TrEMBL record:
<comment type="function">
    <text>Negatively regulates transcription of bacterial ribonucleotide reductase nrd genes and operons by binding to NrdR-boxes.</text>
</comment>
<dbReference type="GO" id="GO:0003677">
    <property type="term" value="F:DNA binding"/>
</dbReference>
<dbReference type="InterPro" id="IPR005144">
    <property type="entry name" value="ATP-cone_dom"/>
</dbReference>
<keyword id="KW-0805">Transcription regulation</keyword>
<dbReference type="Pfam" id="PF22811">
    <property type="entry name" value="Zn_ribbon_NrdR"/>
</dbReference>
<keyword id="KW-0547">Nucleotide-binding</keyword>
<feature type="zinc finger region">
    <location>
        <begin position="3"/>
        <end position="34"/>
    </location>
</feature>
<dbReference type="InterPro" id="IPR055173">
    <property type="entry name" value="NrdR-like_N"/>
</dbReference>
<dbReference type="Pfam" id="PF03477">
    <property type="entry name" value="ATP-cone"/>
</dbReference>
<comment type="similarity">
    <text>Belongs to the NrdR family.</text>
</comment>
<dbReference type="GO" id="GO:0045892">
    <property type="term" value="P:negative regulation of DNA-templated transcription"/>
</dbReference>
<feature type="region of interest" description="Disordered">
    <location>
        <begin position="1"/>
        <end position="22"/>
    </location>
</feature>
<feature type="compositionally biased region" description="Basic and acidic residues">
    <location>
        <begin position="12"/>
        <end position="22"/>
    </location>
</feature>
<keyword id="KW-0678">Repressor</keyword>
<dbReference type="GO" id="GO:0005524">
    <property type="term" value="F:ATP binding"/>
</dbReference>
<dbReference type="InterPro" id="IPR003796">
    <property type="entry name" value="RNR_NrdR-like"/>
</dbReference>
<dbReference type="GO" id="GO:0008270">
    <property type="term" value="F:zinc ion binding"/>
</dbReference>
Length: 158
């Protein structure tokens, strides 16, 4: 692993421990050249995913983009970093489990919104407002009405 401080390609693992329910390994490393310490995270990657954008362009899948978007949507909300990471991991697992190597960006957005809806309604609305490009207050009203009707339907079933 290349040192982020000096660029030396050699580092020594000082500590390893599993995190995220065992789906990743967190390693503390020390550079053999400059002595600086840094952390790496290793995850299992089932297959290389390619995102197909709405205009047809293709780009490599980037887990960090989903993570950043979720963190922005849940900023100043009572959701822990661990819960946010579980949302990201859940979305990525669903994408990998689909068996497709190419995934539409719309599918990623929908999976993310579904996961956010289960965790935090405000975060869901924030994400949806950017993802669906809300331009008027009416757009917010429509999504809130839809959320209320689904909540009432699920309460009636119970």
């Amino acid at each position: 692993m290349r040192c982020p401080f000096c660029g030396n390609p050699d580092s020594q693992v000082k500590d390893s421990r599993p995190n995220e329910e065992g789906s990743a390994i967190r390693r503390r490393r020390a550079c053999l050249s400059c002595g600086q310490r840094f952390t790496t995270v290793e995850r299992v990657q089932l297959r290389e995913l390619v995102v197909v954008k709405q205009d047809g362009r293709r780009a490599p899948f980037d887990r960090d983009k989903i993570s950043r978007s979720i963190r922005i949507a849940l900023r100043k909300r009572p959701v822990s970093d661990e819960q946010m990471e579980q949302i990201v991991t859940g979305v990525v697992r669903q994408l990998e489990a689909s068996g497709d190597t190419e995934v539409a960006s719309a599918r990623i957005g929908e999976l993310t919104m579904d996961a956010l809806k289960e965790v935090d309604g405000v975060g869901y609305v924030r994400f949806a407002s950017v993802y669906r490009d809300f331009t008027e207050a009416r757009d917010f009203s429509e999504i809130l009405t839809l959320m209320e009707s689904k909540t009432q339907q699920s309460e009636q079933k119970d």
